[in-house]
């Protein structure tokens, strides 16, 4: 299993596309100071993921930086492999390459590509990465590769052709299922969205806003059906049942307890996505409040 130097079992998931990179680095330093071990972020047509990783790694001291995920349709497999090796050479143990097939509407609209046979596409992509010569960054260890794996076949591939999985929008039961399929020797880094509020209506509003886009994507719809939800939960924005299943809501102690359920289910590390009143809200106030409840210093 490729090395990841997590200093604690909790990290942060934050897509900061609407923030300047200088402000992102400033907040990443505070995330590190609070004791969170990692900062993961998405790639959906905003900041370029490898450039952002380089800036965050250079701007912090020990924070693990992870792509959650790098869209394989955005760059060639050799570019992903050589770029990730360079980041790993500069910052050993601190870069995690999360890869995903993304979603048909995004790929066809933003990347002018065709979306078909995602499992085969990912398998070929990984094989092409593996074929990049060792002379590219000689002597540097390859960074850990995690796949955005929701369905059983992609989870299996994350164990046979990668170093583990990065489940997103899943219950602790799904984390347990992923761990069972991967066994003890692969990484499982689960994402958990949180709404730090004791007002249920506020929590539900934030959760529905968060789920609005995802609830219209077939990959997530199918994942939620496999997780035990039904068609009635797949309305735009998700049902209240789905919202409460995907988003931990409450005060700091209650939210921390729900986050820890992923660890109890077998995750090695959990990245926390703070939901505010809008997608560009600053996550730091909630992260400050959560840190003591998670046992961070």
From TrEMBL:
This is Putative F420-dependent oxidoreductase. PANTHER family: 5,10-METHYLENETETRAHYDROMETHANOPTERIN REDUCTASE (PTHR43244:SF1), PTHR43244. It comes from Actinopolyspora biskrensis. Gene3D superfamilies: Luciferase-like domain. Residues 10-269 form the Luciferase-like domain. One of its GO terms (molecular function) is oxidoreductase activity, acting on paired donors, with incorporation or reduction of molecular oxygen. Keywords: Oxidoreductase. It comes from the Bacteria. It holds the Pfam family Bac_luciferase.
């Amino acid at each position: 299993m490729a090395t990841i130097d997590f200093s604690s079992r909790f990290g942060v998931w934050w897509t900061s596309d609407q923030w300047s990179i200088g402000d992102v680095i400033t907040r990443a330093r505070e995330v590190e100071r609070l004791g969170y071990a990692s900062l993961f972020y998405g790639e959906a047509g905003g900041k370029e993921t490898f450039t952002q990783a380089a800036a965050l790694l250079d701007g912090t001291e020990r924070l693990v930086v992870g792509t959650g995920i790098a869209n394989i349709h955005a760059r060639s497999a050799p570019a992903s492999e050589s770029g990730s090796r360079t980041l790993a050479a500069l910052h050993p143990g601190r870069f995690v390459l999360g890869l995903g097939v993304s979603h048909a509407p995004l790929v066809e609209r933003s990347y002018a590509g065709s979306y078909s046979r995602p499992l085969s596409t990912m398998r070929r992509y990984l094989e092409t990465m593996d074929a990049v010569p060792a002379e590219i960054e000689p002597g540097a260890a390859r960074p850990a590769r995690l796949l955005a794996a929701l369905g059983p076949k992609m989870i299996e591939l994350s164990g046979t052709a990668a170093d583990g999985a990065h489940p997103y929008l899943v219950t602790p039961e799904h984390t347990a299922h992923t761990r069972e399929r991967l066994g003890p020797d692969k990484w499982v880094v689960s994402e958990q969205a949180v709404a730090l509020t004791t007002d249920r209506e506020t929590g539900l509003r934030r959760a529905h806003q968060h789920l609005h886009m995802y609830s219209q994507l077939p990959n997530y719809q199918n994942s939620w059906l496999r997780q035990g939800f039904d068609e009635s939960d797949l309305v735009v924005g998700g049902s209240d049942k789905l919202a409460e299943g995907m988003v931990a809501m409450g005060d700091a102690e209650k939210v921390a307890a729900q986050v820890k359920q992923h660890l109890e289910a077998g995750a090695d590390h959990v990245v926390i996505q703070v939901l505010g009143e809008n997608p560009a809200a600053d996550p730091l106030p909630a992260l400050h409040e959560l840190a003591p409840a998670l046992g961070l210093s």
